Sequence to fold (591 residues):
Amino acid sequence: MTLRPSNADPRRRPTPRNRRQLSSSAAASPGQLATTLSTILLLLQTIAPPSAVSAYHRAPCTTTSIRRQFQYSECYAPSLNPDLFLREASFVMAHDAATGYLPLSTKDSNEALANHAAMSQQEAYSSSNSWKAISKDFLALYGKTQVGTVYDQLNHGARALDLRPKLYTNGTIGFHHGSLIDIPLSSITLGNLLEDAKQWCKDNPKELVIIFHSKMVHEAGYNGLASQVYMETTDDGYDAANNNNDANQDLDDMFYDDALQQNYYNDDQANQDDNVNNDNSNNDDNDQSASYSYYYNGIAALRGVYENHGVPYYPCEKLGNLTVGEAMDLADLTKLGGKGYLLAVDRHDMYASLCGKANRAQYSLVTCYSSHYATNDNNVQAQQHNAESNSQSYMQCTDRKGTGQAKLNALRSYVKASTNNEPTDNSNELGPPADYLTYPFNQIQGFWQVDASSVQVGLMHESTLLDDNRVSQVNAEMVRMAYNNEFDSVSIFSMDNVALNGNAMFSVLRNQCDQSAISNDDDGLHACGQQLVMPQMNVSTTLPIFWNVVLFVIYGALAAMVLVMLVQAFRMRNKELRDQNSLICSGSIIT
Fold:
C-alpha cells in the first residue's frame, strides 16, 4: 500500500510558500534537512499510482513526451467507475479513425498543389474548375485526421473510434471521409481494423473501447443502401432495433415516395410471413429460440463482419440505460474467444447513424480558414492586426499572434455550447440531448471543421488538417478547458490527431471526480479533478528533430553550393578583367 501524508493530495503542486519553507529548512540544520528529505520522499510517493485497484498502465511509457501527459507516474490512469451510467462516462474519440491508415505522402500531390497555388486568389474562389487542378490523392492527404493505426490511436488515449463505413458492391466494407475521400481497400478494411482494435484490447484487457458508426455509404449510391435483407437473430437487442429500424425516417422521406415505400413494406412483410412459416415448419426442433427480422443491406453486411471477427455489435437502444459495468459485460470479448472489452454501436438504420447527438450545427461551424470576419467583439483585435499587416482578407487558425486567437475563441464557444446549452434534440442547435434514450451519447467536436472554401484556402497555404491541428495547438487548448471544468459534462470528446496530447485529454477526463473507480473511495486519499496537476502537454509547433536536421543539411548544402558558385563567378570575372588589360608584345604579356 502506498504511503501518503494525511494532508496531501496526489500530484498536488506545492505552493511557492511551501517551496520557500523547504529551502529555508534544508539550509537550517542537518536534522531539518533529514526531515525535509523525508517529507519530499512522502510527496514523491503520493504521485505513485495506487496499486490495489484496477488500472490502466500505458505501454510503452519510456519517453518524456508520453509520461508528462499523465497526471500519475508510470503512465497510470484508474479504471472507469463500473457503477457510472454509460451515458455519463467520458471517452476520447478519434475523429475519422480510419484516415489514420492513409499514407502521409501521395504521388503527384506536389505538382497538383503547385498548379493550384499558381492560380490567383480570385480564380481559386470563383472558378468551378479549380478543384480539377488538385489530385484526388492530395485531397485524401489533406483530409487525413489521424496518424497511425487504431492500435496507435488507442495507445494515444482514444477509447472511442469514429468510423464511416462504405459498402462496396463485392460485399467488402471499407471507409470514407466525406464524398471526395475514400480510404483505399488496400490500406484497410473493417475486418483488418477490428483485428488491430482486438489486439489492443488483448494487450489492455481492463479498458472499454466503443466503435461508433455514422454516415454509411454504398458504392452504388442510395439504392445500394435502401434494400433490405431478411436475417435470423437470437439477440433481443436486434429485435428491439427492428421495432425502431427507421430512426432516420425524415432522411428516408427525402428519397422515398410514401406510397412506393408502403408497397415495398407490404411486399417485404408478405415475404417475411412466408419465410417465417417455412422456417417454423422446417426447424421447429432446432430453432425454437430464433427470431427473424429485416435489416438494411448495410447493417446486414456490418453484422456479418462483426460476427466473423468475434466483436459484439448492438443498436443504440441496447445501451440507453446501462451502467459502465453492464456495458463491459456486453463488450466482454472472452465470451467470443478473445480478451478485453470492445463493442460497436449504431442506430441500425440505413446510414448506420451515430448513437448520440452529433452537435454539428451547419451554420455555426468553426473552420480553420474563413474568408470573412465574424461580428463578435472577440475579432476586433484580429481585424486591426490584419489591417495593419496588410495580409489576406481571410482569417486563419494557424496565425496564433493574429486572427488565430479569434478563431480559437470561436471554437471554444462552439464546444462549450455543445454541452453547456439547454438540452435539445434539434440537430441544428448545439446542446446536450433532451432524450437520453434516443441519444445515449453527446458528442463534443473539438476540432476544426471543413467546408469547400476552407479546404481551398488550406491547400493554398500548403497545409493539411494535421498541420492545422498542430500549429493552432487546438488539442492543448481543449485539454486546458476540460481540466478547468469549462464543460458541464463530457460524454464523447472527438479530436483530430489524438497522437498530439490525446493521452493528456484521456488522463484529465478519466481523473475527473466520479469518473474513476478510485475517485470516491472510502479512505478519501485519492485526488480527482483539479486536485491533480494539469498534464504537461506538447505544444511545439516546430518539426521533429529528425526533420530539422534534414532541413538543416539540405539548406546548408544549398548555401554551400551558392557560395561556391559566387566564388567561381568572382574568379572568372577577375580573370576576364586581367585578360582585357594585358598586351602581348614580342611574345611577352605586358600588363
